[in-house]
Amino acid sequence: MTRVLFVCLGNICRSPLAEGLFKQKVEMAGLSDHYHIDSAGTSDYHIGELPDPRTRENAERNGLSLNSRGRQFSKADFADFDIILTMDRSNFRNVKSLETTLIDDIAEVRMMRDFDLRSPGADVPDPYYGGERGFQDVFDMLDQATEELLRYLEKRRLDT
Ligand code: 4NP
Hints:
Blueprint: E1 2-8, H1 14-28, E2 35-41, H2 53-61, H3 77-80, E3 83-86, H4 89-96, E4 108-111, H5 132-159
Parallel strand pairs: 1-2, 1-3, 3-4
Helix pairs in contact: 1-5, 2-5
Bound molecules: 4-nitrophenyl phosphate (4NP).
Residues 8-14, 41, 45, 126, 128 line the site of 4-nitrophenyl phosphate.
């Protein structure tokens, strides 16, 4: 079982969308039994909330329903997941600052756009304060990056 966690600041825009897109691709590939998929926010701003209505509407227009509830990232996630994908450099730093050297902390922490072939390592911009265009841009970015992430994780799973 490969355990995958997507992380942003609020857990209501970028990471729940990445979670939904990745789940959809895993399901379409018939691989659901091989993956545990979740998302979290580094902040406690939106615990228990559904994704932002603009994120949900944009996802619906693209054929994807999002129903996850916001939760805050915690240190336990380093032991509970194999790979953690952060949406931007600020999330990356916040997650890394909580990492320990405990033997159980096995998660690999990566930037989501390490898997975006067009712009490796870049930030997924926060669409929260922007317009509708921002939400579709983020959708397209995460659609491509989650596709590439699945390719990478499947190769790794089948090689080991
Ligand atoms: P997210 O977007 O990190 O992609 O979920 C944000 C959502 C809420 C806030 C910031 C970013 N906020 O400040 O409330």
